[in-house]
């Protein structure tokens, strides 16, 4: 029984360690985070940029590593809501898997309300 318990504990720890040591999310997993709810097509670059630009309108912006970012925590949260709402109006839903959400908890917490 003791051997079984040790073996089970080591398997559980190895499984957790496997998830922790996996590299950051990449195209290796080939997952579309936003898909169209009717056609199941992935989010296009044009629609993504259109909603992203709309989410920046009216906010103070600073340049971080060549990318525009909204200044202030509250304003950033409002900007993210505008972005997600824009995608939703265009027919897209948040479609991230559990393995994506394991690595990027904050993103999933932010967009989970935009699932189906």
UniProtKB/TrEMBL annotation:
This is Lipoprotein. It comes from Seminibacterium arietis.
């Amino acid at each position: 029984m003791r051997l079984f318990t040790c073996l089970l504990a080591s398997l559980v720890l190895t499984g957790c360690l496997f998830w922790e040591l996996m590299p950051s999310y990449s195209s290796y997993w080939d997952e579309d985070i936003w898909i169209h709810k009717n056609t199941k097509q992935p989010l296009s670059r044009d629609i993504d940029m259109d909603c992203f630009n709309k989410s920046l309108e009216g906010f103070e912006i600073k340049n971080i590593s060549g990318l525009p970012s909204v200044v202030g925590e509250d304003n950033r949260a409002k900007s993210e809501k505008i972005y997600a709402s824009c995608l939703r109006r265009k027919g897209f839903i948040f479609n991230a898997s559990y393995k994506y959400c394991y690595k990027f908890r904050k993103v999933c917490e932010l967009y989970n309300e935009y699932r189906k």
